[in-house]
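Friendly challenge for the regulars: who can give me the structure tokens for this chain first? No prize, just bragging rights.
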Amino acid sequence: MCDDRVPSNWFDGGPVRVLAKDPVDLRAIAVQRWTKIGLWSAGIGYFLVLHIFVGVLLLKTNFLHLAGKTLGWIPPDEWSLPLCINILEQAEADARVPQGAVVLLGDSIIAELDPTEIGIGIVNFGLGGDTTKTLDSRLPTLHSVTHSSGVVIGVGVNDLKYRPVSQIVRDYARVLDRLVAAPRVLVLSVLPVDDAGQAAREFPYLRNRNIRALNGDLRALCKQRANCRFLDAWPAIAAATADVYGGDGWHLSAAGRRVLADFVRNALISG
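First reply, four minutes later:
Bragging rights claimed.
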């Protein structure tokens, strides 16, 4: 009872006694406090180490790239940032193309050609890394093809990295469907590669048997369209006396580019 703890003279003005509290274990309190501090420090340290690890994973590896492709957040490799920038730049340049020009379209084999070695009024809209899919997507930005005197296409070899020949031909057909209004479309064969070259050793998809199969289907595809003509440049490259390949055995040397430019020029002259 509370009355037993209060002295009888508490309310009579007598001396006031301070009731003693239970003894305090200071050592236990200190241990508890330092234990809490230790746990908080360990948690913060773990948090920091985890975030440093994640930062290194994101910045020093291709984790984001692979995750983005897997989840569909970023486009596949053939849609590189430099390619997209070049597409925008070419769309701007397209507005200045005169009526009746000959437009070159395709991958780096085409992009590296000097249009002045082919003739007057030649516009080169080739892009390194171009595929039938990227060409099909960027054609609507190139209005000059609708009022050109002809279109030369050299594309397909980069596709071999991403899809089989049958799919490449279907994508190529969509490209030709977009050019149905062009007065003439010259489809350049995919060029052979040096079987012993660096590119053929590094990239399993670069095999001349695959290129031959693709060219055969492109020839047949072109025959189905009145405005299309297939240009087989393989014999011209094979018969060249100079070294037509660059260091990788895939892209052309300066001599090889002149051989191909001459071949295209003669094809345009002959109609």
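The beta strands are 102-106, 122-126, 150-154, 185-188, 228-231. The first strand starts at residue 102 and ends at 106. Your move, everyone else.
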